[in-house]
Amino acid sequence: MKRVLQVENVKCQGCATTLKNRLQENFGSVEVNLETIPREITLDVEDEKMEELGEALKKLGYPLSCEKLNFIENTSAKAKSFISCAVGKIEQK
Length: 93
Prior knowledge:
Radius of gyration: 12 Å
Strand order of the largest sheet: 1-3-2
CATH class: Alpha Beta
Helix content: 40-55%
Number of strands: 3
Structural class: alpha+beta
Distance between the termini: 32 Å
Number of helices: 3
Strand content: 15-25%
Shape: globular
Mean pLDDT: 95
């Protein structure tokens, strides 16, 4: 099922590149909308894979906007997103 999901900490094309590259193997093609706040990703994902997707996003530092994170989880996600962003910028070249 095609879904549009809001994610946190996505700031630039580097972040978008990381999301596309890291999620593609398990979830197929991913579109990232950098024009909205919070940012949106569009992908084809079934209900039974939503938890797996949420975990994959958190691991990269881009949790779903609907997730309630405590202070430590939120701070950790932001730190991970900086690294993911830098990796994405390198992969763009």
